[in-house]
Amino acid sequence: MNLNNLKKLSGDASFRSFYRKKNHNQSSIIVFCKKQKKNNLVIYEAINNILIKENLLAPKMINNNYNKNYIEIEDFGDVTILKLLKNKKIKKIYYYKKIILLLKKIQKIKTKKIKTFENSQYRIPDYSKKKLFDEANLFLQWYLPKFIKGKRRDVEKRKISKIFKKLLNKLIYTKKVFIHRDFHISNIMKMKQGLGIIDSQDAVFGNIAYDLASLIDDVRFKTDKKFKDKILNYFFKNNKSLNRNKFQNDFEILSILRNFKIIGIFTRLSKRDKKHKYLKLIPNAWKLIEDRINNNIKFKDLKKVIDKNFPIKIRKK
């Protein structure tokens, strides 16, 4: 297949490229990937299959040509919920409530193993504390060295790393649910049949608060505290068995650690992969961290070390 004859679509933060293939009145998407093919093609399709089996909308594979680095999947169009909500006339709360109901269905998924199109078995991993810790540490590996040099760098790294560990040990919920892991309105599509889910290849089983933290504290779409609280309240209305204080504890910790991870990933994308467009979102991630740590006793040590090493003028860059 000659990709030059197809329309290239805007990509995501992965190694994949997307192309729209038109055939008469129908269209499909070619997902092309040379690096980390297993994760970006094989596992991507396997997770989509799990979602489809649970009567959720995810792109179905039409053809695969793994040897030539691509698969062909259903075309879900171009209308993400993010794109839709940029129109200020549209009521945000209506779509966010629909997304909360979608999240409830996702969190009920029990399937952990599935056969891939390569005839291998894929088992969805657990989101361990070690994995969460390693991801938060991307901030220390990629972002921190830009601003802290010399011997002090290792000292401050150790301090922050120790705080990350302490926070992870304060997580309460141990029962694991299906997590999309990148659950925000850029990865949810508006379709005739309902809401479609894309970019699911990183799914894991982990803490029930994680995907909600991704949705509510989203670097790509700013919302105020009042709106965030509305969404959180609607989530509790639909999950009455959860203890609100315990859940809030896990939600805040995971939101903060996730946004440190995001700062690290966006810095890495720029430095290693020459993808610079995500750098403009780093101040948003900092703001989300600030909003959660300010006036919150369990984050006092974190606030102290962050204020010392990353003053406001740095965070706003």
Polypeptide structure, described:
With 317 residues, the chain is of the alpha+beta class. It has a single domain, classed as Aminoglycoside 3'-phosphotransferase, Chain: A, domain 2, CATH 3.90.1200.10. Helix content is 45%, strand content 15%. The protein has 12 helices and 11 strands. The strands form 4 sheets. The protein has a 5-stranded antiparallel β-sheet with strand order 1-2-3-5-4, with no helix packed on it. Strands 6-7 form a two-stranded antiparallel sheet. It has a two-stranded antiparallel ribbon with strand order 8-11. β4 (61-65) and β5 form a beta hairpin. The longest helix is centred in the C-terminal third of the chain and has 28 residues, at 244-271. The model has no long low-confidence stretch (mean pLDDT 94).
